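Standup notes
- DV: blocked on the single-chain target, sequence here:
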Amino acid sequence: MQNYKQLGIDHFYKKDFNTAKTYFSLAYEKRKNKRLLNFISLCDLALSHPQEALLLFEFYIDNYRLKFIDKDFDQILNSVEFKNTASKSEFEDGYALNYKDFLISEEKIGFKKSFENIIHSGKLVINDREDFLEFLEKLLDNGYKDFTLNYIEDVFLHFWANKKFIKIQKKLLKMKNDSKI
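- DV (later): unblocked, structure below
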């Protein structure tokens, strides 16, 4: 007997999202449950935003066994879908710089000046989880505590269990406490 769910997972990792969706749908026909519907929703998201869907997929797989995951995952998926709708209109008129180009700029003129240029004239697009965490660390190391806090609050649901993210939170908290003295 075929394990359609496992076949769906395998195809998702291969970035064959249509086939993955088909397998998850077949698994759902055999055994209707919310978690299979979440996998199907991730496949739909992956067709238009593969990078974000892959990150969410890994998060979901890592936390699949937790009881609260379905409610939390619905919130995460809804926020990602809302963000994607909003970001389409934001980037239509504005200037967007990818993170690799930002790093080149940082190398030439420094982090603070590069960051100020982005704040005043455009958007910074970071598609990789590790790059984003690196960016948060650089923000904090360069004295942008409020910006770091805002980003942490915005992405907490996506990174709450990530060790590097937790380390950044602790460092921010220590800096905030030290500045009160």
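- Follow-up: DSSP finds ten helices and two strands in the chain.
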